[in-house]
Amino acid sequence: MEFINLVLGSFSLLLSPQILLYVVAGFLIGTIFASIPGLTATLALALLLPLTYSLDVSTALMACASIYMAGMCGGSITATTINIPGAPSSMMTALDGYPMQLQGKGPLALGHAAFGSMVGGALGAILLIVLAPFVAEVALLVKTTGKFSLLAFAIVVIVIAQRGKVVKAGMAACIGLMLATVGLDAMEPMTRFTFGSSELTAGLDLMPMIIGTFAISEILIQAKSNGCAEKMVEALKKVTISRRDFIPPLSEIRKIGIMCYLKSSLIGYAVGTLPGAGGSMGSFLAYAETVRTSDEPETFGKGNPKGIVASESANNAVCGGALVPMLTFGIPGDPVTAIMLGVLVINGIQPGPQLMVGQAELIAPMLASLLFSALILIPLTLYLLGPYFIKIVAIRKDVLYGIIALLAVVGSYVATFSTFQMMMSLIIGILAYYLRKHDFPVITLLLGFILGPNLEEFLRRSLSLSNGNPMTFFTNYDSLFFVILTLVFVYFLAIKKPLKKPF
Amino acid sequence: MLLNKNVVFHFLLFFLSVGYFVIAINLGAPFINNGLQPSSFPLLVGLFAMMFSSILLYREVKLMKSKASSLEDDAQTDNALSGKGRFAPLAVMLSIFLYILLFSPLGYFFSSILFVLSIIIIFSSLEKVLQKIVISTIIVSFGYLVFEQMFGVRLPTLWG
């Protein structure tokens, strides 16, 4: 209850014009980035990460939360208007959104998407606010061996969640772990893999890792597929949207049914708590469930607003769910929460259960911002800026990538005021580009890098506490719990047959 | 010819994994008095990396052998991309590399204008260069406002 009061009290921070400006600007930037195919909210966060150096942690996290929420709903704009999802999480939205656009109901489809996002985002945030303190208290019971098994569980689940490319995901995670071992050993005064470079003694910085993985590699990918972007801009110029039909009538909301909103949000939230699952899996499962339980399944894929609502409620509820493992265990579940964890680490704050218990005042404003973004900014942005979205999204790509490239490279300089970090960003960016080009999921690389140091530390501590006996991971109940959980997930995600596509 | 770009890439990953594992071996014994040493975790990671990369390499080589036409497919895919599209990523890499080299000696403004201009040209064409120089200058000034004025980041100048 104390934490809930703290979150409610944090809403007063939004009365400060400066903080409100950062939150609103973050939301707009997130929406624009998510709505432009090829750009993502992750890229927006990666570019803005260096700027968080000069903000206080709470304000930076509040802006991150609004970008996250915007990133989940912004993708529905181009998914609906031109059948190209701006973000992967809006893939399922396009199935019914675009047919509605073809029927002349594009604005209404966007209205349904926004309303679904609002309900899903708000429910996800409320569940997070209510449940996170309890999860954090349970997390305090997990000791060293359990922490190792938990981190191993997270990495295994992230890898096997990449269906169809598990080996590639495993390789990318290994590269992340390799990069995490560069520098001074955490327990002994010995350097590893520095090749005599004094600049590598402290290890690789998180900033060039994030900027290289998400920003520079993206510029390189887009440089290769530049022609596609031009075609997209041409398609966008043909679309016109008016404001008057954005608000979905109450009769249609009733027809969709409150259960559709609730069930999809809960599915999204639950999926969000799993490492590596993300918004696309949340919306896919919610859509599949909605089609399965519908009386008229044949109408899906032909412009049924229920499909849009299921997809958007779920992917926005993922935001709340994904923050649970990040805040309570220090395990990011997706790229955005990985960058948010970076904001904490950059500011010298150790994420984990102690953070929620001991420094809740830092976290509460972020959750208030998440709820504010869902309830206020999603509908307001659509209503006020909806008709102009298409013009914004159709911005000249050469100018856009000029801005992104400048922010990315100079952003890497900000961390240490050294060109060495800029060069590291370029090297990591080139590595990530070639990995992405060969269909390797780079999220597992980043999570391997982030979780690697703790994974190694807890492994070594556990074994030194047990005199080198590896059975310690099976004899301690907290560790055994995560070992069993890992096996359960391996069975359901890697061994059992995958779900059939609902369309 | 057995080797194509995919095989070369997967071979490089395998080579990287083996190299990492060999360096990890040279870090010393993994166990001393039942305690894990600095080399133990890298050895474990190296082992997994070698396992994954060898599976991927094996798959790729097998795919090459079973689909002899894939080389043609690859060639067709590459040809489908315009010459500019094919070399654009390399041009971006080179631009960023040169920008980093010139960033301190030339200072933020001059190096950034050249860099942004080069990126804009890579993503468009050499037409209307004057207009693009103006746009680059505006973007760089905007970057200056964001970094130095709004967020207090000290950027290098030509005059130190």
Give me the secondary-structure topology:
The complex is a heterodimer of chains A (503) and B (160).
Chain A: H1 2-10, H2 17-35, H3 41-48, H4 57-74, H5 76-81, H6 91-102, H7 106-139, H8 144-160, H9 166-180, E1 183-184, E2 191-192, H10 206-224, H11 226-237, H12 250-256, H13 258-272, H14 278-293, H15 305-329, H16 335-346, H17 353-358, H18 360-393, H19 397-416, H20 419-437, H21 442-465, H22 472-475, H23 477-495
Antiparallel strand pairs in A: 1-2
Helix pairs in contact in A: 1-18, 2-3, 2-4, 2-18, 3-4, 3-10, 3-16, 4-15, 4-16, 4-18, 6-7, 6-15, 7-13, 7-15, 7-18, 8-9, 8-21, 8-23, 9-21, 10-19, 10-20, 10-21, 13-14, 13-15, 14-15, 19-20
Chain B: H1 5-26, E1 31-32, E2 35-36, H2 40-66, H3 70-80, H4 83-106, H5 108-123, H6 129-150
Antiparallel strand pairs in B: 1-2
Helix pairs in contact in B: 1-2, 4-5, 5-6
Radius of gyration of chain A, CA atoms, in whole angstroms: 22 Å
Chain pair sharing the greatest interface: A-B, 61 and 71 residues
Question: What distance lies between the first and last C-alpha atoms of chain B, to the nearest angstrom?
Answer: 54 Å
Count the domains of chain B: 2
| Residues in β-strands, percent of chain B | under 5%
Main beta sheet of chain B, described? 2 strands, antiparallel
* Low-pLDDT runs of chain B: none
Describe the protein's architecture and organization.
The complex is a heterodimer of chains A (503) and B (160). In chain A, helix 7 (106-139) packs parallel to helix 15 (305-329). With 503 residues, chain A is mainly alpha-helical. Chain A contains 23 helices and two strands. Chain A starts with a helix and ends in an 8-residue tail after the last helix. The longest helix of chain A is centred in the first third of the chain and has 34 residues, at 106-139. Chain A has one domain. With 160 residues, chain B is mainly alpha-helical. Chain B contains six helices and two strands, in the order H-E-E-H-H-H-H-H. Chain B has helices at residues 5-26, 40-66, 70-80, 83-106, 108-123, 129-150, and strands at residues 31-32, 35-36. In chain B, strands 1-2 form a two-stranded antiparallel sheet. In chain B, strand 1 (31-32) and strand 2 (35-36) form a beta hairpin. In chain B, 28% of the residues are buried. The interface between A and B is large, with 61 and 71 residues.
